[in-house]
Amino acid sequence: MADSTPEGDQTSVTEEEGTRRDFLVLAAGAMGAMGAVGVVWPLIETMNPSADVLALASTEVDISGISEGQAISVMWRGKPVFIRHRTQAEIEEAQKVNIDDLSDPEADEDRSYKGKWLILVGVCTHLGCIPLGNKLGDPKGEYGGWFCPCHGSHYDTSGRIRKGPAPRNLEVPEHNFLDDTLVKIG
């Protein structure tokens, strides 16, 4: 018996089967990709910092109680941060320094806020000691700033290295003043 289906109809059936097959392959591939993302996403998410680590990423400090000439230390990311309300004499001393004479040249204006506020990470850049000079009665070194007794690094009133083995100035952490009495570090 002869095939009653015209040749043109058989071609459309074959194309239709190919189209259906292509759709099933694409749908299966999409489902497989979604499954892979469902497995990989939680693994990547575990690498994000936890809430307690994110809480340490920044800290807000009320500076309204710091009198002129006074300094405090706060902890940020496990490091001491020195916040000093500088006197006019300290500001003038820091600004009159010839930047070309410094081993790590940096202008005082780039390190302080409105001249009077200086915020520094209190870790010596030589071997990671904590310099003295933030507390009343601490030795402040030859330049009136901070002194690291471990190896004799002297920092000026802008936290710049002036004498000793430290290769760099005390670090100025990322910070911004939310208002005149509140600073956010980090």
Mean pLDDT metric: 85
Text of the CATH class of the largest domain: Mainly Beta
Task: State the domain count.
Answer: 2
Q: Any idea of the CATH topology of the largest domain?
A: Rieske Iron-sulfur Protein
User: From the 3D coordinates, which CATH architecture of the largest domain would you assign?
Assistant: 3-layer Sandwich
- The CATH superfamily of the largest domain appears as Rieske [2Fe-2S] iron-sulphur domain
N/C terminus separation? 87 Å
Q: What fraction of the residues are assigned to beta strands by DSSP?
A: 15-25%
Structural class: alpha+beta
The major pleated sheet works out as: 4 strands, antiparallel
What topology, given as strand order, has the largest sheet?
2-3-5-4
Helix-strand sequence = HHEEEHHEEEEEEE
What overall form do the CA principal axes indicate?
elongated
* Rg, Å, rounded: 32 Å
Segments where pLDDT lies below 50 for 5+ residues?
A: none
Quantity of strands, as a count: 10
Helix content: 25-40%
How many helical stretches? 4
Topology, element by element:
Elements: H1 7-45, H2 51-56, E1 59-62, E2 71-76, E3 79-85, H3 88-95, H4 108-111, E4 112-113, E5 117-121, E6 144-148, E7 153-156, E8 161-163, E9 175-179, E10 182-185
